[in-house]
Design brief:
Layout lengths: L2 E6 L6 H14 L3 E4 L16 H11 L4 E4 L10 H14 L4 E5 L4 H4 L8 H19 L4 E4 L4 E5 L10 E5 L3 H10 L2 E3 L5 H12 L4 E7 L5 H12 L6 H4 L5 H7 L5 H5 L8 H14 L3 E6 L5 H16 L3
Parallel strand pairs: 1-2, 1-10, 2-3, 3-4, 4-7, 7-8, 8-9, 9-10
Antiparallel strand pairs: 5-6
Organism: Micromonospora pisi
Keywords: Oxidoreductase
InterPro entries: F420-G6PD/mer, F420_G6P_DH-rel, Luciferase-like_dom, Luciferase-like_sf
């Protein structure tokens, strides 16, 4: 059975509401929680961006069953990789082993707050070094590391769960799939592309989890949902090569000034039709993903969505 997730999107809710949404998602019957780990919202209309890690700790303490995962943490600029390993292990303890660390190379939007955003070639080198640091620290090893980008004179994570925290890596092409197959316990992809899973398998990922995420906007009024998606989600179609480079929320607004409402609504199901939302989820299932998280676009609609998901959407998804 595919694990059905709910996304705590830090860009569209404050920390107190996010904790409440996590508790409600567990009560509704979701299998796992994803949480975004950003410094800025994508566009100013979203209006939020609290630190994900305190929220994770609170959600871990307030829940008992649901699996937890960052989607995604970048360990190359804003966080040093040794600190990421410590944070992840702490949440692993607080959650009694329910936490998986999701890693990606990040975006200028969130990482430039601590310094210049490196060139993509350098970022890939930094990311590989980061996972070489994180992996042994999660596993309880004392680490001494000297690389081209990071120095760890000596590090050891003292508080760890009984079973070491696992981590999954985002991938979008052959090299990143190879890295994920070599180092990670799972693959993350933002598009339902079977070729990525095939490359991951060939690199050593056979039998490991594959995590995806799909955006929807449920509500009783389809027209209102379309407006919400256009207002808050029109940046998503830019593609990762563009999204990784833009530095500010106003940059995303400028880059999408000619996007139309119908352009966004064509890729994000909107309104009350459960079958439209199921079809979006099904594309990831058909591609071979084992874990698929849902993003309900629109901050104020989260409680309404979670109640509807409990009563209507989740029973339907369990039939797949």
């Amino acid at each position: 059975m595919v694990s059905v997730g709910y996304t705590l999107l830090c860009e569209q809710a404050g920390p107190v509401d996010l904790i409440d949404h996590g508790i409600r998602a567990e009560a509704a019957g979701f299998d796992h929680l994803l949480i975004s780990d950003h410094y800025n919202p994508w566009v100013e209309q979203q209006g939020h961006s609290p630190n994900a890690w305190p929220v994770l700790g609170a959600v871990a303490h307030a829940t008992s069953r649901i699996e937890l995962m960052t989607y995604l943490t970048s360990p190359i600029r804003r966080y040093h990789p040794a600190m990421v390993a410590q944070q992840a292990s702490t949440v692993g303890v607080l959650s009694n082993g329910r936490f998986t660390l999701g890693l990606g190379a990040g975006e200028n939007l969130n990482e430039h707050v601590v310094g210049a955003w490196p060139h993509v070639t350098q970022r890939h080198e930094m990311f590989e070094e980061a996972v070489q640091i994180i992996r042994p620290l999660l596993d309880g090893e004392k680490l001494v590391y000297s690389g081209n980008h990071y120095e760890v004179p000596e590090a050891y994570v003292w508080d760890r769960p009984d079973v070491p925290v696992k981590f999954a890596m985002a991938a979008s092409g052959p090299r990143s799939c190879e890295l994920a197959g070599q180092y990670a316990d799972g693959l993350i992809a933002v598009q339902p592309e079977p070729r990525l899973l095939e490359m991951f398998d060939r690199a050593g990922g056979t039998g490991k989890p594959r995590y995806g995420q799909v955006a929807i906007c449920y509500g009783p009024d389809e027209a209102e949902c379309r407006r919400t998606v256009y207002d808050q989600w029109r940046w998503f179609g830019l593609g990762w090569k563009v999204m990784a480079e833009l530095p500010e929320p106003v940059s995303f607004a400028a880059a999408t000034q000619f996007v139309r409402e119908e352009d966004v609504a064509s890729s994000v199901p909107c309104g009350p039709d459960v079958e439209a939302h199921v079809a979006a989820f099904q594309r990831f299932v058909d591609a071979g993903f084992t874990h698929v998280g849902l993003v309900q676009v629109g901050g104020p609609s989260q409680v309404m969505f979670l109640d509807w998901a409990r009563d209507v959407l989740l029973p339907r998804l369990r039939e797949l």
